[in-house]
TrEMBL record:
It comes from Marinobacter salexigens. This is Probable GTP-binding protein EngB. Belongs to the TRAFAC class TrmE-Era-EngA-EngB-Septin-like GTPase superfamily. EngB GTPase family. The keyword Lipid biosynthesis does not apply. The gene is yihA. InterPro entries: G_ENGB_dom (IPR030393), GTP-bd (IPR006073), GTP-bd_ribosome_bio_YsxC (IPR019987). Keywords: Cell cycle, Cell division, GTP-binding, Magnesium, Metal-binding, Nucleotide-binding, Septation. Necessary for normal cell division and for the maintenance of normal septation. The lineage of its organism: Bacteria, Pseudomonadati, Pseudomonadota, Gammaproteobacteria, Pseudomonadales.
Amino acid sequence: ISFNSARFLISAPRLEDCPPDTGAEVAFAGRSNAGKSSAMNAITANGKLARTSKTPGRTRLINFFSLNRENARLVDLPGYGYAKVSRDMKDDWQKHLGQYLNDRQCLRGLVLVMDIRHPLTEFDQMMVEWCEHNKLPLMILATKADKLKFGQAKTTMLEISKKLQEFTCVEHLVMFSSTSKRGVDECRAALTDWLEN
Ligand code: GDP
């Protein structure tokens, strides 16, 4: 798979608007502003793929990107937890995300993007537990690692890994930075494995 070949496919405001549930998909989730769009851009070497935004929480749609391999897709799930969104929007968000995660047969794995400076938020823990319960392989990207000294980043990684010890769904825990591109190759290798097997 060549991740550089990723192309925007479709935005799905509702589950009915998703592409056919065939082939293989890996979905990216994360708290708003965690760095999910930047991570997807780094992985696909496309600065404009997933729009990064200074207004967190803007994207409420599920966005699909096609890869060069037949029926392999990357999926950008709506960011969670923007303080200013209304109750209705939050309910809407939960409904869509929940529906997608529960119904999607072609989902091969989930990438959970977290800011290394704020690891394992309540939302993150909820996602980890959901993956564990549903036996869905999980990759955690602890991103913005460039914001910490290497020693600090390393310590945080150890802390995260300790907290997640009991979770068998966690297949990869990657120190990541969209700025320095740290972890990009490791992440691509894991995605390839999920999408091809
Ligand atoms: P999203 O809401 O999760 O999609 O987050 P974005 O990708 O839009 O990133 C949120 C903010 O963090 C933006 O200002 C990015 O430039 C910044 N950011 C994202 N990833 C990194 C990173 O790896 N290093 C640094 N230094 N900043 C980052």
